[in-house]
Design goal:
By secondary structure, the chain is of the alpha/beta class. The protein contains 4 helices and 11 strands; from the N terminus they run E-H-E-H-E-H-E-E-E-H-E-E-E-E-E. The strands form 2 sheets. Strands 4-3-2-1-10-11 form a 6-stranded mixed beta sheet, with helices on one face.
Length: about 160
């Protein structure tokens, strides 16, 4: 199973559309958005595959609309942070700006913790958890998303054109 991971789309519709196309072309089975949509229609763009998402610090004003959109497009709303299990792997998701959420999720010792917020792509291991930040589609030196093969543990960052 291959995940598409993106974050910090900040209402960049065209860039998000391109990113989702790249993820589909890479053969992702599901999409995880690590927050900062800023507008609910970005969620609709991401829901072309089973979609899981959290709120980011720029989503608080639209939380209710994002939840309603999630129901309409059959996306899984994980609020400020949550855990899913796919292909036998435990995947925690949060935006990354709430340290209490990060600590709570890390305490569960997931296989992966996916987060955004910094607008910088990152991949590192802390104890037994692999922490992945896919980068951002707004206010970043390079616009990136990522794919993660849950069976092989292979992570690939994809550049999204400006």
């Amino acid at each position: 199973m291959k995940l598409g991971i993106l974050s910090d789309t900040h209402n960049q519709r065209d860039r998000c559309r391109e990113a989702v196309s790249l993820l589909q072309a890479a053969g992702v089975d599901a999409i995880v958005h690590c927050g900062d949509f800023t507008e609910p229609d970005i969620l609709e763009l991401c829901a072309v595959r089973p979609c899981y998402f959290v709120l980011g610090n720029n989503d608080a004003d639209n939380a209710q609309l994002l939840q309603q959109t999630a129901e309409a497009v059959n996306a899984k709303f994980l609020e400020w942070g949550g855990v899913i299990t796919l292909a036998g792997k435990t995947i925690a998701v949060t935006h990354g700006h709430l340290t209490a959420q990060v600590r709570r999720l890390m305490a569960q010792q997931p296989d992966y913790l996916l987060s955004g917020h910094t607008h910088v792509a990152d991949d590192r291991c802390i104890d037994h958890t692999r922490r992945i930040n896919p980068g951002a589609l707004h206010r970043a030196r390079h616009f990136t998303v990522a794919t993660l093969d849950l069976l092989t543990d292979e992570l690939t960052f994809l550049d999204v054109p400006r």
